[in-house]
Amino acid sequence: MLREEFTQPCIGIMEASLYASRMCGERLSVITTGQRSRFLHEDSINTTYGLGSFLAGCDAADVSVLELESKPKEEVYEGLVSAAKRLVDKGADCICLGCAGMTEMQEVCQKAVGMNEREVMVVDGVAMGVQFLIGLVREGLGTAKRGMYRSAAMGRERRGQTWI
């Protein structure tokens, strides 16, 4: 909906991390919070983004979003590191952090999978989203309005709808 209503570029954090992972490696993966989220991410990667053929897998850290902050850090890190190592064992060379709440945990995952040796990249979608948007704005690019993202404002106006 944002793309329909605004000409400025829009990008989601998952979209940003997946695209960055495709640019940096061949086999991407995602660490999610819980098992349910794992299935949703796998489905989105396959259907929404069409990147299923590059997916090494998704694995859960087995914490809820709220537990990323409320649980002891060591316990949360243990779940993330275990998931990251399992994904590397499945062939991942890029790991996306699958939740905005994991942003501050990127370094822990990087150390666990050998990013210093440039073997495996760990991608934070929040940071990548910001960087992609900066690049798009600097290049003067925005959302194309000819097709899919044509504004629905006139239709709302005809219906007398005053809200988005």
UniProtKB/TrEMBL annotation:
Transmembrane residue ranges: none
Lineage: superkingdom: Eukaryota
InterPro entries: Asp/Glu/hydantoin_racemase (IPR015942), Hydantoin_racemase-like (IPR052186), Iso_Racemase_Enz_sf (IPR053714)
Pfam families for this protein: Asp_Glu_race
GO MF annotation list: amino-acid racemase activity
UniProt similarity note: Belongs to the HyuE racemase family.
Classification via PANTHER family: CN HYDROLASE DOMAIN-CONTAINING PROTEIN, PROTEIN DCG1
Name of the protein in question: Asp/Glu/hydantoin racemase
Organism per entry: Cytospora schulzeri
